[in-house]
Amino acid sequence: MPNIVSEVVYTLRTMQKRQYLMQGVSLGLIVTSALIIWRTLMLVTGSESPVVVVLSGSMEPAFYRGDILFLNLGNDPIRIGEIVVFNVEGRDIPIVHRVVKVHERHHTGHLDILTKGDNNYGDDKVLYAQGQEWLNKKHIMGRSIGFLPYVGMVTIVMNDFPYIKYLLIVVLGVLVVTSKD
Fold first, then answer.
1. CA distance 66 to 54
2. Full-model pTM
3. Which residue range is the domain that position 94 belongs to?
4. Distance separating alpha carbons of residues 53 and 89, to the nearest angstrom
5. C-alpha to C-alpha distances, 84 to 5, 65, 91, 113, nearest whole angstrom
6. Does residue 60 share a domain with residue 108?
7. Residue 60 is part of a domain; what is its CATH number?
8. pLDDT at residue 144 in the model
């Protein structure tokens, strides 16, 4: 391990300004590419967040904590049994639950939606904003169209232990700056 650190320090000391500039541009391109991919996914799926991580066990056995869900909002009406991700006023973190009731007003097209976690005893009315008994289309971020099991545990660990996130950012930054390309 000390050999790796000394090698990185040596590489940083021997780099010229032009190499630092090129490595900075490379890092910028990596970040920009990631943002472009995210924005493209947003446009294609119609969802403000096309990928989310399941943070609790409320949807077990369908989804477990750490599963990554892929979302698509689409224009089709929301139906009973679909798994949706929604935001509620006053809560920062989206919720992943199943639709258990839908009331559609045919003359206006307005939908009232009630959700429930598969592993929860009751419906989600207690999770909604005070005085709110139903979700509307504006609360829905997307519906689940696929998932990767447990891949999101990395995100959960980085949120639970922020120093790991910062350490990972520093290490990746050093690797990009010191790469020989």
1. 5
2. 0.75
3. 51-149
4. 20
5. 46, 16, 16, 10
6. yes
7. 2.10.109.10
8. 93
- Asked if 4 and 60 sit in the same domain, the reply is no
What type of residue is 65? Answer: R
Helices (H) and strands (E) in the chain, counts: 4, 6
Note whether 11 and 21 are same-domain residues: yes
pLDDT (tens digit, 9 = 90+) per residue, 44-60?
A: 888 888 999 999 999 99
**3-state SS assignment for residue 150:** coil
Distance of CA 80 to the CA centre of its chain: 24
Q: Which of 47, 97, 139, 144 is catalytic?
A: 97
The whole-number average pLDDT for the span 60-82 is 91
33 is catalytic: no
Q: Which of 47, 49, 67, 124 is catalytic?
A: 124
Residue type, 60: E
Angle at CA of residue 99, ends 94 and 102, nearest 5°? 120
For the chain, what is the domain count? 3
Catalytic residue at 97? yes
Is-catalytic flag, 107? Answer: no
Catalytic residue from among 58, 67, 139, 144: 58
